[in-house]
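We store sequence, tokenised fold; for instance:
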Amino acid sequence: MKKSLHPRTIPTFFAVAVAVLLWISTTSYWSTHQMVQSFDAVSQAHQALDKIQHIELLMESAESSVRAYTITGDAARLAPYQYAKLVVPYEMKQVDEFMATYPQKQATWQRLNKLVANHLTYLRRMVALRRSEGFAAAARGIRGQDDAAKRDTMDRLLSEFQQEERIQLDDRRRRASRHSLRTKSVLALAGFMSLGFLAWAFGLL
């Protein structure tokens, strides 16, 4: 015959149950929150890298199209330039939002922003020069050393940003994997503790 429960057993049992449930809920929430943040960081890094690569591709296409127009005078060759002129500022603005969380990159990013805007202005000037003064004037403008130096700097910064984003992306993937494993471990531990607690509780009844 089982012994009757002590009068304080039920309140104690209830208090322990509440404490365990609170611990399980808090730990699970924290682990899940950390995991979600890690996966969000990975997603943001992916987006930033994709946009920087797209900006670089658009700028290369825009420059090639302006050069082709300068040589041929065919306005149809300007389609990639016209597209880049519209899309690049929009893409740069979106990357601005990602870079807002990295104060250490702000100065370099603003410098790159200015170089990209200046290069678009330079391309627009070359198009206008070809239209108004012909091939020779535009060709002289394209060969300008100052613009070539700025273009090289812009290309270098775009490449550096892509490399940095790739490194950060790899680091965030590793952190996301660690948080995912930790969350699974916490949830598994919580499940075992719940089962153990239930077994203990039934043993008291």
Remarks:
- The CA atoms of residues 35 and 181 lie 9 Å apart.
- The chain has a mean pLDDT of 76.
